[in-house]
Amino acid sequence: MNRAGRSLARIPVEYRGAREARGPLLVVEGVAGVGYDELAGVRLPSGERRRALVLEVRDDLAVVQVLEGTAGIDPATVAVAFEGRPLEVPVGQGWLGRVWDGMGRPLDGGPPMLGADTRPVAGSPLNPAVREVPRDPILTGISVIDALTTLVRGQKLPVFSSAGLPHLELAAQIAAQATAGGDPFKVVVAAMGLTHPDAATLRAALEGRAEAGELALFLDTADDPVVQRVLAPRVALTVAEHLAFDLGQHVLVVLADMTNYCEAVREVSAARGEIPGRRAYPGYLYSDLASLYERCGRVRGCAGSVTQVPVLTMPAGDITHPVPDLTGYITEGQILLSAELHGEGVDPPVDVLGSLSRLMRKGAGEGRTRSDHPAIAAQLVASLAHARQVRDLAELIGEPALTDTDRRYLAFADAFHATLVRQRSDESRSLEDTLGRAWRVAAELPRRELTMLPAEEVAAHYPDGGPGG
Question: Are the beta carbons of 156 and 330 closer than 8 angstroms?
Answer without folding.
Answer: yes
